[in-house]
Please model this.
Amino acid sequence: MSEARVSNNKTEFAVIYQWLIKPGKETQFRKAWEGLTLLQMNNRGSRGSRLHKSEQGTWIAYAQWVDKKSWEASCEQKPEDEMWSQLMLDAVEDTWPPTFLAPIADHLMPEQLASQGLTGPHVKH
Model:
């Protein structure tokens, strides 16, 4: 896979993760995911992530990274990751391999703009 080269300090790499969470462990998983995500944002080059629940019941996260090297370095287990990682693993019934993405075009509106009612044309499905 070739890596995208996006200039102007933009995201060059993204990852999609997918899990099936054990019944009753949803809150544990979410708190652990949030803790690990914040750690990666503050110390590892992550541009943040969004956690979703699909209609099929799986949980899916979309994470943006400065580049693939930053993501690879974040995968190396560090002592401060241990608690969050163990809590997440304990809550997971099944997982899928990550999907790696190279951005081509970006029209995702930042939450700050969306919350101010600044939206673009709507697509009807």
About this structure: The chain has one domain: 13-104. The chain has a mean pLDDT of 84. The first strand starts at residue 13 and ends at 21.
